[in-house]
Each structure stands twice: as structure tokens, then as C-alpha cells.
Specification:
With 96 residues, the protein is mainly alpha-helical. It has one domain. It has 3 helices and no strands. The chain is extended. The termini are far apart.
């Protein structure tokens, strides 16, 4: 790995960590927790312990990705609406 790529990786990690801190300050927890409320339709006994534990450990990752994706999506919608009006999707997105 080149020095430039390493610096980019570290900078991106710091920016991500800062973003997670901002979300946490707004009351949106993206850190791992052991307080999992089971979903009534999903029963732990229906799955192998390995699959269940993998799902539990990935749940914090899903939470973070969901928050990041929706924050970016909302940002794009706001900016496009400001620049091109409320019907920006119909006007600016090409028809297939």
C-alpha cells in the first residue's frame, strides 16, 4: 500500500469516526450494544449459533450504513430541490 493510499485510508477513517460521533450527539446510536430487543417473528432457536452471533455483530454495521445512506440521500434531495425545484427527479433524471 502506498503512502498516499494509507493517508487517504486514515483520513477517511477519522472522518467516519467524526460522523459517527455527530450522529451519537444527535441521539442516533451507531456503536455496538449488547441490548438487543428480539424481533418476535425471528427466534434464535431457528438458526445456528454462528449465524445468530454473526447477525448480532453485524447489526451495528447495518445501523451505521443505514444512517449514512439516508443522510446522504436526504442531502441530495435537499440540494437538488433547491437548485432545480421540487420536480427535479422528473426533469433531471433520464428516462430509460
Amino acid at each position: 500500500m502506498s503512502e498516499r493510499l494509507l493517508k487517504e485510508f486514515v483520513l477517511n477513517a477519522l472522518l467516519t469516526q467524526d460522523s459517527f460521533g455527530s450522529l451519537n450527539n444527535e441521539g442516533i446510536s451507531v456503536s455496538a450494544t449488547t441490548d438487543y430487543a428480539p424481533i418476535n417473528r425471528v427466534v434464535q432457536a431457528d438458526f445456528s449459533p454462528r449465524v445468530w452471533n454473526d447477525a448480532i455483530s453485524m447489526s451495528s454495521v447495518y445501523t451505521a450504513l443505514y444512517c449514512i445512506e439516508n443522510t446522504i440521500r436526504n442531502f441530495i434531495v435537499e440540494r437538488m430541490s433547491e437548485r432545480y425545484g421540487i420536480d427535479w427527479w422528473e426533469c433531471k433524471v433520464p428516462k430509460k
